Amino acid sequence: MNHKRAGTDSLLVTIFVFPGVRLLDVTGPIEVFTSANDFGGHYRLNMVSADGNEVTTAAGTRLGVDMAVADARETSDVLVIPGGPDWDRLIKDDALLDLVRGLDANSRCTASVCTGAFLLAAAGLLDGRSAATHWRHSRQLALRFPAVQVKPDAIFVRDGKVMTSAGVTAGIDLSLALVEEHYGAEVARAVAKDLVVFMQRPGGQSQFSVRARAAHTRQDMLRRVLDAVAEDPAANHTLSAMARRAGVSSRHVARLFCEELSMTPARYVEQVRLEAAQVMLECGDDPMAVIARRTGFGSPESLRRAFVRNLKVTPGVFRARFHTTGVADAEAPEGARVEG
User: Fold this and answer.
1) CATH architecture type of domain 11-195
2) Does domain 210-322 have CATH number 1.10.10.60?
3) pLDDT (tens digit per residue) in 201-230
4) CB count in 10 Å sphere of residue 334
5) Whole-number Å distance between alpha carbons of 65 and 107
6) Catalytic pick from 109, 114, 258, 283?
7) In the structure, how many helices (H) and strands (E) does the chain have?
8) Domain boundaries, the chain
9) pTM for the whole structure
10) For residue 66, how many other CB atoms are within 10 A of its CB?
11) Is 258 noted as a catalytic residue in this protein?
12) What is the pLDDT of residues 90-130, one digit of tens each?
């Protein structure tokens, strides 16, 4: 896509909506693109539906549209295909898929949000491409559409003219990336500040668990080892302990991890422990020493080193960003300190 700067011709963003669409899949990108117009962007938005009539979202909200798909003849610079909870029914709707194909053929960039990737896949638009979707449905996307190279951990993926994003709010991340591509980092940064979101999510924010990413292994023995780590991250999970648990040699365990998961056993254990620590930081107020002990890191310093190495932030900073919406922090006494 051509990189445009402020002052050039406007860019057309077309959003395709349908009954049962997820509301935030639609409104998230809309907010990004319209906000960009306040900071030097030039976007025009066009909401279309199959017949030009309003649609009712999965939340029960009614959305008005600008026109029917058949009347949307102008080439779109960006086509947004949102998702919906009833994606299993939608991918069997041949008429709907024909509309998606037609809109894609008349767009320079096609971007899906969340389960909108299923519509693109069912329409044949992701064949041979890499793609992302909501973590809960990533395995289904891979199983139903084997020609698609699913990236289960990605927030969003670009492959050629097609972009796909993870669950719901990841559509905002994707849209910000497009704003930066069109009008530069300064405009995208202003939009992120305006919407109070990250310009780029902190490193390491996988969209779902490391154990779920390893669910495709064909080895029952290896699955038992993986489950044991996930069930009790603080237990002894050295290579020799895993081998004893599996009843095979350490070398065999190491080989299976490499072949099935493309990582070492130690790396897998660290990722599971890191994820367990993230959950404790997000959902509770335990001291760092308690979190380190319960997740297998042993000491706060080991926990801190793992966070900095993998996520580029300290545990304390992570907790401050993701533990609450910030209301409690805003009401905290002056001089209060974030641990970590």
Assistant:
1) 3-Layer(aba) Sandwich (3.40)
2) yes
3) 543 345 445 555 554 566 778 888 888 888
4) 4
5) 19
6) 114
7) 16, 11
8) 11-195, 210-322
9) 0.65
10) 14
11) no
12) 999 999 999 999 999 999 999 999 999 999 999 999 999 99
